[in-house]
Amino acid sequence: MACNPVKFGDLGKDAKDLLSKNFHFGVIKLEGKTKSAGGTEFTSDGSHNLETGNVAGGLESKFKHDLFTFTEKWNTDNLISTNLVFEDKLVKGLKTDFDLKFAPSTGKKAAKINSAYKHEWFHSTHDLDLDFAGPTLHASAVTGYNGVLVGAQASYDSGNSKLTTNSLSLAYHGGDFKIHTGMVDFSKYFGSIYHKVNANLSAAVSLAWSNDASAPTLTIGAQQALDADSFTKVKLDNNLRLGLSYVTKLRDGVQVTLSSLVNAKNLNGGGHKAGISLNLSA
Which CATH number, 3.20.20.30, 2.60.40.10, 2.40.160.10, 3.10.20.320, labels domain 8-281? Predict the structure, then answer.
């Protein structure tokens, strides 16, 4: 039986999101979202790095039409990007987007054409980085049957006529758990397990290692719902770095996230971080 495969980049996403999202160590973040009467969405965000003192921000506007979605972004690095997306218009299951980036201060330009085709038996992506020295093609495909997913991804640099990266992945989606493993360039290996223990509790573990002398990395974590509007997260890696996060909705349209990172290997040696994120929507 088919299992509606996800795209290659989303294999292992549940475990990855549990172990990475809602952790804002050493930063203060603010994000605001509004929507006009005509349906145009506006997003503004800013962040302050408490360690370096750097401040960054950005603006985004998104307009959705029956035929396409148009997005324009600007950030404090003076990078302007536009994105035009067509989905299920020419062929059902086909999504195509055109991405353009321009840095006025340097004059540097970049363009990318992305496409993805989704079917009940497979999900493929075909991305083309346009470069005057020679475009780079990124392609991936995932197919699945009865919960088992097999995927492959490769990148080809036409300017140098060589394969730059290649990846293989294998996953299994059970009723309440997901297992994912894979390798990159036959030298880096990774794996993860995500388990939906019950309606309020989820857990995940992630492992990565490579052929070089670097040590393997292991991270375990869990998410516990406290009520309908709040939840907590905890994660711990093999370097005894303990991450904690508390997310709650103060009222409709207002969500706050409190995060902390504790160096449990050396409690008196510093290296601890705290962070806060405030999300506003109207």
Answer: 2.40.160.10
